[in-house]
Structures are given as C-alpha cells and as structure tokens.
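Field reference: sequence -> structure
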Amino acid sequence: MENNRYIENRAAEQTISAYAARFSLNGEETVETVRAHGRVTAAPCYARVSDPCYHAAAMDGIMVCAADTAGASETTPVTLERAQYEPVNTGDPLREPFDSVVMIEDVTEAENRRVRLIVPAYPWQHVRAVGESVVSGEMILPSAHRIRPIDVGALLAGGVETLRVRRRPVIGIIPTGHELVEHADELRQGRLVEYNSHVFAALAAEYDADAKRYPIVRGDGAALSRALSQALDECDIVVVNAGSSAGTRDFTRQAIETVGHIHAHGLAIRPGKPTILGEARGKPVLGIPGYPVAAYFMFQKCVRALLRPGEREQTVRARLVRRVVSALRHEELVRVSLGWIGGEWLAAPLDRGAASIMSVVRADGVLTVPQQLEGIEAGAAVTVTLTEPLETLRRTLQIIGSHDLMLDELREHVPLKSVHVGSMNGLLALKNGQCHLAPIHVLDEDTGRYNEALVRAVLGSGDYSIIRGVGRVQGFYLRPDDPLETVCFADLTRADISLANRQRGAGTRLLLDYHLRLEGIDGQAVAGYRREWNTHMAVASAVQSGLCRTGLGVYSAAKALGLRFVPVAEEQYDFAVRTDDLADERVKHFIEGLQAEWLRRRLDALGGYTAQQIGSVRRLP
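Structure field:
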C-alpha cells in the first residue's frame, strides 16, 4: 500500500475554530429532576409552588396569639386558657387566629389545662411563613448551570419535577492499531495495552457527553470503514484514534473519505500534527494521533471546540524557569510544573515526548509556544493553562533536583511536586529562587564528604541549610539471567557492555565520571554514555528490558525491578533549602514526613537505605 498523501500544516487554533463552527451539537432534552444531578440546565428554572405552601410551625410547642402573651416575665407570668392556645408539632399548619409558636420547653402546665408563660411571644415567632424557602415564580436556577445535589432538592421543593437540560451528545470512539490489546495479561513482544479510548471516554464525561467505545480495529482499512459507518449511525461525533499519519498502515484518512470528506489533515501544532478534521453525514469525524500525549491534547482541543465553543480555560501568569526551544513550523504544547515560590508562580518545563503519558500526569499546566516563535527565554512571563486547581498548587512543595524513590513515597502524605534534573541543576534552581528544596547527592573529591562543599560552592554566600535525608547504596544493575557475575567501571569499555547513563548534572552521573577518571577512561569510549535517563527507575528499566546491559543507580530501584545489584559506593542523599524557608509550613510538613515512622517502614521495604538523623537540619556556615 502507498503512503498517505501529503499532510498539511494549517494554523491549529483558527482551523479548529472554523471547523467546529460548521456543527451545532447543543441540543436539549427533558429529564426528571430526580435524575438531573450533574446535568446542565438549558433554560432558567422557575418555582411552580412555594415552599412551604402554608404557614408552618417550626418547633414543637403551642400556637398562640402573640398579643395574648404581652408582659409575660418571671415575676408576672401570663396564664393562657385552653381556648387561647393549641398544641402543635413541627411542620403542622398555623391555624387562625394564631400567629406565633412557643417552644414546648418554654411552656409550664397549670391547672385545668391552662398553661403559664414567663417570656412573651412575638408575631411569627418559630413560624415558617409561606415561601420562606422557595417562592412560587422565583428563578431557582439560571441556564447553563451544572445541577448539584442541593439544587435537586430546591427544584423539587419548588414543584419542578422535570426540566430542560442540554442533551449529552454521544461520542463514538474507535481505537485502531495492529499492536493493541485490551488487557495487560495479553502483553507480549510487539503488543501494547490500548488505553487512549478510555481517556477519551473520561474526557467526554467532563464535557457533558456520553462515550460509546467500539472494539479495536487492527490494521484493516475495510474493517475501519465498517466500524466508522456503524458509529455514524449511532453517535453524534466519531473519533478514530491512531492511523492518521502517513504510514502504510494508516487507514484513517481513507476510511473517512469512503463515507464523507476531509476538511483538514495536518495542523501546525506539536504534539498532534497529523490530526484529521473530517465530516460525514453532517457529523464531525476526527482522526486523532495515537501517541498518548498528542491524543490527549488533540481530543481536548477538538472536542472542547465542538461541545463548548467560546469557553475559556483557567490560566495563570508565571515566570518560566528554563528556556524552551521550539520551531517556527508549528505551535508547541509544553507541559509544565508550577510552584508558588517567593510570591509568584514559577513554571518548570517537563518531558516533551509525545508518548510520555506520565509527563501529563505530573503536569500542572500547559504552556503554548506560538508558531511564530523559536522559543521562550528563561525568566519570561508566560501564560499557563491550568490542569490543576490553583489552591491545590499553592499548598504544594516544589522540589527540583536529584531523583529518589523516597520522594514518590512522600507524595502519599506530603503535597509535593518533584522535577528530576540532577543535583547540580537542582542547586541552580534553588539559587535562582525556582524551588523550595533541592535534593542532592554529590561527592566532594577532596574531602570525601557529601553535599556541603558543593552547596557552598554553587550557592555562594546566601543563607542556606541542609535537611538530612538518607544514606543509600549506589551500584551497577544487571539482569538476573546475565552471565556476568559482576561488573566494574573498567568493564564499561568492553564491546559487549552498553550503559544506561544518567543526565548531566545528576549526582550518579558525577559519580560515574569520577570513577571513569580514576580508571583513565574517556566517557565517549563507553557504549551508551551519550544517551541519558532522568531517574533511577528509568535506568533500571533500560537494563531490565535489555535495552542496555548495565547502569549505575541506587539499590531500591534494582530491588523494585528484580535486578541483580553490584554495590559501588555509599552516599548521602540530602535536601538543600534556603534557611528562611524552614519557617514555611510546606517545608515543615516535609520534615515531619521525613521523621515519620511510616516512612522508615517504607524505606526498610524498599531496601538499601539508612536513616540516621533523618530530618535534622544543619545551617551552613
């Protein structure tokens, strides 16, 4: 089969907006109020009746005429004859001529069924007047209002038993790909679990739409055309996931053209360039790229434009902490982590790979780099579209520096975000006011001690402290079935050994380079030296999968992935902090987490850690 025809490069926002304007998907329907929770009103809702619809007693007691109780006091009690009062329970109607209710606790019984009062009543005391809760004819809810549980009660109180709501469009989702399977139990070489369609279904619910997921279509253009035709019969919008690019197994464009036509194929946006905007039977048909990040962003952009035209997303102004490089051919969506530091929002760019779903999970927002820019410089003020509520982010501790599994465990109890850029870059981020804590583990070759010398050298004369972390063991990873009994730094030049290396500035990378110098080895002579991984778990995964034969990292990652471990060195993993920030409640909460018994138990389970004096603070001279 020939490749698909040329993919265009149209301006994304304008093209999507013009495309969405072709369709009207905001219909209405009538639903029962008792089933309306979560729906969006299509018109104002007015009360048919008042609540209460009669004057009702608000307390258990007696109904009285307030004028009959005038002057009552402890010294001059008022006695009422039986004809001057009537017993009443909460909710009973207030009957004429009575205009007040006296609580039973304030009533003293007297002889001959009379009662005595020592406190006067006032008109309408303890009485729920007609319409006290809801008045007939008043607006209970406006249009475009998402119905909450309490709203259901107010509507029913006002006699509204049915109402008009926005119809929930049905979005048909067709996953495609010869390599896809439904469940992890089916995984083997060349197979991947299909999950984009389930992400789409969850997003559809957020957009007040229902999702109908169809079976996976595996590399068959005719089967995709049949599935597309069925979905058009049953749904208001159809989304075909994957197969939108120009490869020989990409059938989406041809399938759409068998039942309709293409408005655009190829948008000037990354990730998401191969997106298809099509139409069939008067309905929108979208071809969304298969890479998870591209799929997520393009479904959001296209379906939001179709279902919520003109809706503005929540944004915040932030200062960019690192330069972002882009290209003039497209606008770029950059995932960022946000931190509230020093009275301003700071945005740190995250991994930009189109397949890295965890970069979206870890992101707090998205920075859009316009098509006409080649990048944005560090320190620039930028607009970030939020994916997390601001108040949640304001309570979150921002950590930039070295990676350790302990940080993942702390997230369970301490609100924090960690960006893994290595010890050196973490210290620079701290120096520039871009984070609260910088995790570090760097050996001073002259003194043989960890961290303090480096902190003083990098941070200079500022007032900084070190929060004591954990001791841990660094070593080489090997697969359990590897015939090598052991490995050392001198072995790294062997032709049959490839290395999974950490990124420049990481403490583990500095440890590697130190030992390579001792052995007189040029790093460029080590196979794999130039390719970098950002975490210990990523290095361990590269070894486990056979991508590399060995890698240097901490014991806990080796244990987590079932690898053999060859110890090399013991080190200290600590946290640099501005001394003034020790008073920050977020930092205090972090130190409490370090000292908690539950963390010690988790460190024991992970293995390879010592925790003497963990959480103690040393102010640097």
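Note: Residues 292-307 form the longest helix (16 residues).
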